[in-house]
Amino acid sequence: MLSDRGNAVARKFGLVYTFPDGMRQIYSEKWGIDLSKFNGDDSWTLPMPARFIVDRNAIIRAADFNLDHTIRPEPRATIDVLKTL
After folding, report:
1. Each residue of 8-24: pLDDT tens digit?
2. Sign (positive/negative) of CA torsion 49, 55, 56, 58?
3. Domain range list for the chain
4. Cα–Cα distance, 62 to 49 (Å, whole number)
5. Full-prediction pTM beyond 0.90?
6. Whole-angstrom distance, CA of residue 43 vs CA of residue 17
């Protein structure tokens, strides 16, 4: 598991979404969501969900990514890949 404060790793993989100014205003004023409070910075960015399974030799054995943040890999698929390592 990776903790990626500031999205440094996600940025290297091109997996960072930056909110447009109009969306920032909607989130802040209409919905009362202060993303900078949750992120701990003023970047107004979020990592896009992705899964990379990397073996002990630093070889990526599986990768999943979808622009639709509601679509995630099934946990069973992750377990199945891990069992092959």
Report:
1. 888 998 999 898 888 88
2. negative
3. 1-48, 49-85
4. 14
5. no
6. 10
